[in-house]
Amino acid sequence: MRMLHGSIAEASVVQPQKETHVSDNKKGHTRPAGKTEHMAYVNTSRAVMARPSLAADILAALRGALARRRLYVQTVNELNSLSERDLSDLGLNRSMISEVAREAAYGK
Questions:
Q1: Exposure pattern of 62-85 as b/e (b: 16+ CB <10 Å)?
Q2: Neighbours of 26 (CB within 10 A)
Q3: If 0-12 CB within 10 Å is exposed, 13-18 middle and 19+ buried, where does residue 101 land?
Q4: Mean pLDDT over all residues of the chain?
């Protein structure tokens, strides 16, 4: 078995052919060969690996949402711990803290 591109496996099976046919060049027809010979042919098949399950997708989305929520809470806590003077140096006032934290965690 040979792996292609990391997610596609290609299996090759060589099987003997029972009867050999010879082509007639003049008429384009084929006829059985007088002497029974065995030829081999290759049959290939591909198996594509399944994508991650729905449960894994949901779990990844949940982890991302929890990480964004932690960032929001951390930003709110840090901005609330600043004095009025520090906030004004940043160009903020207390009423803007939740909006700034939401933009930091979730984007606009």
A1: eeeeeeeeeebeebbeebeeeeee
A2: 6
A3: buried
A4: 77
Name the amino acid, one letter, at 23.
Answer: S
Q: Which contiguous run of DSSP H or E holds residue 15?
A: strand 8-17
**How many CA atoms, within 13 angstroms, populate the side-chain half-sphere of residue 74?**
8
> Which residue has 């930091």 as its token pair?
104
Q: What's the pTM value of the predicted model, to 2 decimals?
A: 0.51
| Residue 107 φ then ψ, to 5° | 85, 180
Q: What residues contact 87, with CB distance under 8 A and at least 6 apart?
A: 79, 93, 94
Neighbours of 104 (CB within 10 A): 15
